[in-house]
Every structure is written in structure tokens, then in C-alpha cells.
Specification:
alpha+beta
């Protein structure tokens, strides 16, 4: 075999090897994305996956299912794309009247409780009329948000379980 033929054979094998590795990596990435699921832990809660599927947001409306929440406090549970608790995140809430576009008069007060749970006081999600709540989560370089329209979101709550984006 001539040196030129040997070079062509080695180059062809190297190309095939690189192509195979690339295809295997793309396939495993598709499998990881297909397996991505977020857990809704409670039955009587409001749940959504953020628009870019970086986080899930579960809103506990009262202390029926989680007694540690306390009276007149809303709980928000945040998980990341690996379905792990998100701690030390910056959570912002924008609660506006759908008819007027004006923000709610009360300014919500949020506290982190650990294990992905954040509690919020001064947030009345059962107010009369139509309201939009946008929950924005920022953790490290990741930022994403979920939107909830009240009272419509209360009419058909999802059962607890696992949900894909």
C-alpha cells in the first residue's frame, strides 16, 4: 500500500470516528431532553414549567397540604431542569389586574425557607376579577418565567405527578 493510500484510509477512518462520536452525543442529548420532567408534588396547587423549561413553579395557595406554610401565606416551590430544589434564587413577582394593567396595591413579601420553598405574604391570589401573576426565577446565569392567569388557572388544576415541557 502506498503512503498516499494509507493516508486516505487513515483520514477516512478518522472522519468516520468523529462522525460516530458526534451522532452518539446528539442522540444522548435528545434522550436527556426527552427524559426531562418536572415534579408537581401537591394535589391542590397551581403548576407550570417556565417558558424556556429552565424551572418549574408550583404555587401552594394555602396550608391545606403543607402545614408548615402557615396561615395567609402562599408557598412557591421552584425546581430546576434536573428537577432539583432551587435555593438562593432571585424570585420576582409581577401581579397585575388583567383589565387595567395596574399592579396589585399590596407589595408581596417573600422569604426563602429552604428545599426550594419560598413563602409569600401580602399576595391575595383569590382576589375578585382577572389577574396575571408572572413568576420570574433567576439562579446564577439562568433566568426564566412562568405566567398564571387567575382565576382561570384555579378551574382545572393538574394532578400531582411528573410533567414534560
Amino acid at each position: 500500500m502506498k503512503a498516499n493510500d494509507l493516508f486516505k484510509t487513515i483520514a477516512s477512518l478518522a472522519f468516520c470516528l468523529v462522525l460516530a462520536v458526534f451522532l452518539m452525543d446528539a442522540s444522548s442529548e435528545e434522550k436527556r431532553e426527552a427524559k426531562q420532567a418536572f415534579t408537581k408534588h401537591f394535589q391542590e396547587t397551581v403548576f407550570d414549567i417556565t417558558s424556556k423549561a429552565k424551572f418549574s413553579v408550583e404555587i401552594l395557595l394555602d396550608d391545606k397540604e403543607y402545614k408548615k406554610l402557615g396561615k395567609d401565606v402562599v408557598g412557591i416551590v421552584i425546581h430546576n431542569a434536573r428537577d432539583e430544589d432551587v435555593e438562593k434564587a432571585v424570585i420576582t413577582l409581577d401581579f397585575r389586574n388583567l383589565d387595567t394593567g395596574e399592579p396589585a396595591a399590596d407589595k408581596p413579601v417573600m422569604k426563602e425557607r429552604g428545599d426550594g420553598l419560598y413563602t409569600v405574604s401580602d399576595l391575595d391570589l383569590r382576589k375578585k376579577g382577572g389577574w396575571k401573576l408572572v413568576v420570574t426565577v433567576k439562579k446564577d446565569s439562568e433566568e426564566d418565567s412562568a405566567q398564571f392567569l387567575f382565576p382561570d388557572v384555579l378551574k382545572n388544576p393538574l394532578p400531582k405527578g411528573r410533567y414534560n415541557p
